[in-house]
Amino acid sequence: MLAVDDLVVSVVTSLGSLDIVRGVSFQIAPGEILGLVGESGSGKSMTSLAVMGLLETPRTRVTSGRIAIDGADITHATPYERVRKGNGDIAMIFQEPMTSLNPVRRIGDQIAEAIKVHDPKADVRARTQELMDLVRLPDSALQHGAYPHELSGGMRQRVMIAIALACRPKVLIADEPTTALDVTVQLQILGLLRDLCDRLDMGILFITHDLGVVSQLADRVAVMYAGQIVETGSVRTIFSAPLHPYTAGLMACVPDPSTGHAPLVTIPGQAPRPDEVPPGCPFSPRCSRADTPCRSGPVPTVRAGDHAALCHFPLNEELVHA
Amino acid sequence: MTATLQGVFGAAIRRPLTAFGLLFLVVVIVFALASPLIAPYSPLEIDSLNRLVPPNAEHWFGTDHFGRDTFSRVVYGARLALLIGIGVVGFALMTGVPIGVVSALYPRLGRVLMRGVDVLMAFPSLLLALGLIVILGRGVSNAILAIGVVYLTTTARIVYGVTLRLREETYVEAAQSMGAGTLWTVRKHILPNMISPLLVQASFVFAFAQLGAASLDFLGLGTPPDIPSWGNMLAESRLYITRAPWLLFFPGMMIALTAFSLNLTGDALRDHMDPRFREAMGNRKRT
Amino acid sequence: MLGFIVKRTGAALATLVAASVLIFMFIHLIPGEPAAVMLGDAATPEQVAALRTRLGLDEPLIIQYFYWAGNALQGDLGRSIFFDEPVTTVIADGAETSILLASITMIWVVLIGVPVGVIAAMRRGSWLDQGLSGLAMLLASIPTFWVGLYLILVFAAQLGWLPSSGYPSIFDEGGLANLRYLILPSLALATPNAALILRLTRASMLDVSKEDYVRTARAKGISPRQVTVRHILRNALLVVVSAFGFTFAALISEAVVTETVFALPGIGRTVVQSILRRDYPVIQGVILVIVCLYLVLNLLVDISYRFLDPRVELE
Prior knowledge:
- The complex is a heterotrimer of chains A (322), B (287) and C (315).
- Chain A is an alpha/beta fold and 322 residues long.
- Chain A has 9 helices and 12 strands.
- Chain A is globular and about 65 Å long.
- Chain B has one domain: MetI-like (MetI-like fold), CATH 1.10.3720.
- Chain B is an all-alpha fold.
- Chain B is built from 12 helices and no strands.
- With 315 residues, chain C is mainly alpha-helical.
- Chain C contains 12 helices and no strands.
- Chain C has helices at 2-29, 34-39, 45-55, 61-73, 87-122, 127-140, 144-158, 183-209, 212-220, 224-261, 267-277, 280-308.
- Chain C is globular, with a radius of gyration of 24 Å.
- Classes of the chains: A alpha/beta (322), B mainly alpha (287), C mainly alpha (315).
- The interface between B and C is large, with 47 and 53 residues.
C-alpha cells in the first residue's frame, strides 16, 4: 500500500522558495485505482514525480511530509536508491509515448534494461515475452529489433507499460497516459490498465485533467486545486453528490454523453499561479458560494462517510455530518 | 528589443564574465573613437634610438623594431577592429537578410538561392576569403568584402530558418488570410521578430570577423602593412618573439579578448532569446 | 538505405559541379589578362601568347570549362606555372603533411573536447563547469597563430623540447619520430576546435538530459552513471558526430595559417605561397581538391548519422 502523508513540494526560484504541493495526503490500496484530477498547474504531476522520486533536485524537492510503500519510507529516494533498498516496486508511465522512449535504442533492449535492473538473473527473453503478453503487444512489435519510431502511439504506450511492469510494481503511476492518443486507442489503454490492476492486484495512481476518464476508470477520486486535495471520495459518491463547488464546476464542464453536445460551461477566472495563491480558501475568488470566512484563515474539512472536502459552504450540505 | 537588452544587462549583473565582456567592448570602442586622445604617441612615429624597448613607464607596452610605441599602435588598432567588424556584420546582414527572407517567402526562387548558399558553404571559410582576396586584391575594404561573403551564407541560412518558422505562426497566417500584402507582412511581423536572432548572429559574426581579419593580416593578405592593425602587429612580431615577447602578447591579447567579449555577449543574448529560435541559431549541422 | 545514399550523393555531386564552375571562373574573375597576370610584368608578349595557348584561354568560356573539368575528372589539374610541374604533383607533395596534421589535430579535438564536455555537463552549474565553459569560450576566441607562436616561444625556443618549424616525412630518415614536428602545430590548431567541440558536447548533453526518455530511464531505477552513458551520452554524441565534418573542414581552412606559422610543407602553405607567386592553376587545383574532400566527408557523416540514428527518414 502506498501512503502519502502531508506532502509538501517546493520549488526554489530566484525570488525564494515556493510551495507547489501544499500538504497532500492519500493512500492507494492494492487493486485500487485512485484518480488524481486537476487543471494544469494544480500540482498533480509534481505530486506524482515526488512519489516516484523524479523531482528535479535540488531546484524542486520534498520539503516536508512522508511517502511510504508498505511502511518503508521512500520520501526522498530516487528510483535507483529505491531499487537498491528493495523498494523498486513503484513504476510510472508518462503522457507522451512519442518522446518517452529512447529513439536510438531498440524496443527490446529498453524492456530488457528494465527487467535486468530488478532481477539481474532473470531469463530476459522469457520475461520480455511475458510482459509483452501482459500488455497485449503483438510479437511483431519486437521482431527485427524495432525502434520506437516504427510503432504507433498506442503501441509505444504499451511498450512503456511493459517497461513499467518489469519491476512487478505494487503501485503504477500513470501521468495522463492517454492524453496524447486517439480516442479509440485511449479506450484500449484504459481497458488494459483496469485489467492489469485487477489481474496483478496492483494499485494505480491515475493522473488526469479529464473527469470523464476518471468516472469510467477509477475507484476513488482526489481533486486537486492550487496544490491541495480539495475533495476526495469514491467515484460514485463524488459524481452523485459533490461537496466542493470546484468539483461541481469541473463536472459541469464535462460534455454530457446522453445529450451529445458540450455545454461549454466554464469556471470563471483562472487557477492561481503558485506565487499568487490567495489567503483562506484558494478557490474563493472564483467561487459563487464564497463569503467572508472563505477569504482568510484555515478551511475546515467536511465529511460525509468516506467522502471529504475542504470547504466552508459545501454543496449537498444535508449529507455532511459533523 | 528592449527586453533583449534588459536581459543582457540582467545577465551581466548575475554573470560577472558577461559584465567583463561588455566592459571590454566599451574599452575597445573608446580606444577606437578617441585614439588620438588616448595614445601617447603617433602609431607611426619611428624612434630608432628606442627600438625593442620592453614595457616601461614611458612605453607601457614597449616598442617595436622601429621604435614605435606598442600601446599607441594597440589603441589605433581598435579603429580597424571596429571598422572590420561593423563592415563585415553590415555586409552579412544587408545581403543575408534579403536572401533568407525572399527564399522563405518564395519557395521556388528560394530553392535556387539556398542552393547557391550551399555551394558557397562547401568552401572552407578561410579558403573562400583567400580566393576572393586574390580576385579583389589586398586592402581593408576587400578584406571586409571577402570575410563578409563567408558570413553572408550563415546569416542567410539563419534568416531563412527563422522566417520559415515565423511564416507558419498563426498570426502571420492570419494576417495573410486577411489579405495583408507580403511586404506588409515582412515589415510588420517578420522583421521585428527577427531582431533578437540577428543580434545574436551579429555578435558572433563580429567575433569571427576579428579572427578572420587577423588571419588574413598574418598571411600578409589583409590590411596593408603600413596600417597598425592588431593582425599586422602580430605578423611583424614573429621575427622577434624571443627578443621582444611583449610585441606578441599585447595585440594577440586584444584580438582574443575582443572576440571573447563578443562571444560572451552573443551567448548572453542567446540565453535570453525566444526559445523558438534557439534551434535555428545553434544548429550548425548542414542537412 | 541505398536510396538515401544515392540521393545524398546526388546532392553532393550537384554542389560539386556548381562549386567547380565557381573555381573555374576564379581565374577569369581576376582583373586583367590571366596569362599576363600570371607571368608578371617582365613577360614578353610571345610568352604570354604561348601561355594563353597552353591554358586554352582563346577558346569560348564554356568550352574551356568542359576541357578543364574533363581533365580534372581524369586527374589532370593543369600545370603549376612556378614549379612547371603538374598541379597534382604539387598537391601530392603537401598531402602527407596536411593529412597527418589534420588527423593528429582531430585526435586532440576528440580526446580533449568530448570527455571534458561530458564532465562539464555532468557537473552542470558547478564551479568546475563554469570554469571549463568560460575557458572553452576564451580558447575558442584565440587566433590559432597566436597560440602557435606562444607554443614556439615556450616549448621550442625556451625549453627546447620540440622543434619549432618544418616537417621531414615519416618515410625519410627519422621515421615515425618525425611526427614530433607536428605536435606543436596540431596543438595550436586543436585549441579553438577542441573548445568548440567541448561546448557543443556540453550543450547537447544538457539538451538530451531534458528529454522525456531520460526521465523514463531514471524511472526504471538504473544508476545515474548508466543513465548518462546509455541514454544521454549516446544521443548527445549524435549531434557531436554530425559536427565532425564541419570541424574537419575548419581544420583544413585554419591549417593554412598554422602551416605558415610552423613553416610546414603542407597544402595550406602551398596555397598561400601560390597566391603570392600568382600560380593560379595551383590555387584552383587545391581549392577543388579541398572542396571535394569536404563534400565527401560531409556525405560520410550524413550516412554514418543515418546508421547511428534510426529516426532519420529514408527520403
